[in-house]
Each structure stands twice: as structure tokens, then as C-alpha cells.
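As noted in the main text, all predictions were made from sequence alone. Below is one such record, for Hydrolase.
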Amino acid sequence: MNATPTPGSLLISPKDHTLIMIDFQSQMSFATKSIDAVLLRNNAALVANAAKGFGVSTILTTVAEKTFSGPMFSEITDAFPGQPLLDRTSMNTWEDAAVIDEVNRIGKKRLVFCGLWTSVCIVGPTLSALDQGFDVYVIADACGDVSDEAHERAMERMIQVGVRPMTSLQYMLELQRDWARTETYDMTTGIAKKFGGSYGLGIIYAKSMFGASEGH
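Prediction:
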């Protein structure tokens, strides 16, 4: 055995994956009970802003936006001004030709998913993508369902077949990975201060009181 200071192949990086954000819409959130709506919106905003800031290829998709489910959370669309939303009729995003055309156009084998609801809108595409040979991750705390039971069983079902779970803050910090990367340091800590909960408060305190910086 000979250890080297190199990251593992299962860690994500900004350029090695496509983020797919699914059905973050008002109607879908009304019945979401496994996570508080404010926390859900906060986590989704953190993911969206991190993806935008690091230049991650991102697909935004909705279901019946104009006729039933309503607009995508502004916290997400504000991060991607002008980006088209791919509206669907299918519950399984993977069965929508426009979405798959975009996945193929981008051409990345690694996919990261989040959205509402976990048991339908996330299980469907993740299992479908996995079946077609893609490397699949799910941001568990940027997903939600009609009950704790529904969310947890959906996560278990995906994990059992090889989908890899992560959290919203983990997603952003894995993109940064090294505080010495000064070109994205201020952006990452700025997103954390705004959307990173108690971790963000800690950054605000340390910088305000001591001028602290993780990279120095």
C-alpha cells in the first residue's frame, strides 16, 4: 500500500457531474411533511447557488408548472437567471424526452439529483439512470416527501441499489474541498453565511470577531 494525497474517485467535483433539480414547486411543497418548508427552500437555495458558483452543469425541471404545480422556487431560479425550465407531464423525469436530450447533450455519466417528492420524483429518475449505467447521487436534505416514512423508505430503496446519498452542505463543501482554493473561497463562505444555518453563523462570528480564514 502506498498512500498519495489525491482525492478518491467517488468524490464529486464541479466539472464531473450534472445536477438535476426536480419539481421544487409550491403545490409539491404544500404536502411535504418530512422536512420543514423553510429548511427545504434554504437547502435548495444552497445547492443551486453552489452549483451556479462552481459552474456545475444544471438541469431545472418542473411538472405542470402553468396548470397545477406552480412556479419553481425563486431561490433556485434566481441563481440561474434566464435558464429554461423543462416542464413535464411525466412523474418520472427520466421518461421525459426533453430532459434526456439535455442529459445527453451535456454528456456526463455522473448525476446528482434533488427535488420533491423523494418517493416519486426522485426514485423514478435515479433508478432509471442507475439502470442505464449512470453514477447517481441524491442530496437527501434537499428532497422531501409527504411523511417521514415516505422519505426514509425512498432513500433506503435507492441506497440499496447503489444510489449514493449526501447532504446540501456536504455537496457544496465537496465542490470546494480545499480552503486554499482562493478563487472560490469567498463565494463558498458567502453562500454558507447566507444559507448554511449554524455553520454559516459560525463563519460570520469568526470573521467578524477575529478576521479568521480557513485557508490561512
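The radius of gyration is 17 Å. DSSP finds ten helices and six strands in the chain. These features were considered when defining construct boundaries for the mutagenesis experiments described in Section 2.9.
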